[in-house]
Amino acid sequence: MHIDGKVVPINRAQATPSPLARLPVVLLQVRDKAAQQLQQGLQELFDNADDTLFEMADKARSNVDHHIFFEAMRDLRLKRKNFERVFMEQLFAAFIDLGQAERGEFHLVPMVSYEAAPGTSSDELEKAVALEAMLGRVRHRDGLALGQLTARLGALLGNPLDERDNPLGPALLCEFFLRAGRSLGVEIRVKLIMLKLFEKYVLSDADQLYAEANQLLVATGVLPQLKAVPSRRPGGREAREQQREGSVQAVDQPMDENGQQAFAALQKLLAAVRGSVAPTLEASAEPQPIATRDLLRLLSHLQQYVPEPEAEDDFDLRNQLEQLLTRVSVKSGKSRVVEDADEDVINLVALLFEFILTDHCVPDVFKALIARLQIPLLKVAVLDKSFFSRASHPARRLLNEIASAAMTWSPRDDYQRDSLYLRTEQVVQRLLNEFVEDLAIFPQVLAQFSASTADERHRSELLEQHT
Length: 467
Description:
globular, 2 strands, two-stranded parallel ribbon, mainly alpha, about 0% strand, about 65% helix, 2 domains, 17 helices
């Protein structure tokens, strides 16, 4: 009987199952969980590689070295996606190899050794030494968890497994990284820097990788009698995030005497405009002021509905607060109004933002971002009146930093991909999402924004010199 070349007979299809079909479901879960963590590590690696190479270029003692590191930065940016893709392909292929019926005795990666073959170049020898040291540190630090994972994988597959065949072992992970980096046209110094970054941002989290893989296998009954390895020191990604946050001192709490006096002086000037934030209904009784705590709750409610920068409608804070007060008044049956001191704060903050948003030196795209900070900054001023008198107040400095940086920005059509715009957008979104009443968030955000702005300024100056 003639068989169309495009049709696969049922008996043949059954005889040649997909390599993935040979893998137990739990092994696929281990693979996918590990792939997710490794992908995050690689992303963090590349995010920091640019800064590391830039710093090396900045410290270069010769124009040749300066050029080498700048070219490496460019090469990494162009080939980053391909690098990550090849790494993940190697990882998935290694898991498929585990399911092969006849694995034989081959290993995907030889054990790296100080002993180099005759004729090995000094560059290769240097790389081999660096790799050997990296593998040794991982095995010394996480060897027990790695050994348990290797034993469990072997038991699951019904065939003893060597660490060198463990797709999550440090030897194979390094091999995947080296194979993915073959497309990079960089010299040995840059390769060694990349290896150090791989150890810092990927291998340093190996304990978490092995712990989660072991947990998945134990949950399905694979060698549950092996004693669980206790988590080692707080480290890896969590430690790096804590380090970036730094030690932050709390904002000085209200009220200092000078701040109170300055605010009192401003209140005299604002007396004429009071009453602009009030419910739009006929008061059936004497207006009842709402407490400052209730005002903060109303503002936190409004904060959740601040429109996106692209929204065409302007966000009028006082108008939105009026509408909210009207709803509260109708619901309670009483005319609820804002206390005089709190209304003065609202009017002052509104004037501050009106001044910034009408400044022709601030680009429109940044005005849209800055406008979204009205409620967080108003809540700060309600909580701490020294916001108006203390020039060093973190929230006030943050607003000044953003406005100053925006004034030096060069307009571009694809502004949504601009680094300054993205950093500012992240600051605004973080404050909208996280700030309730803890003022300690402002020194954190200010420190991060100021540091990134200074780095970007220095980077621009160096790039101009290089060009």
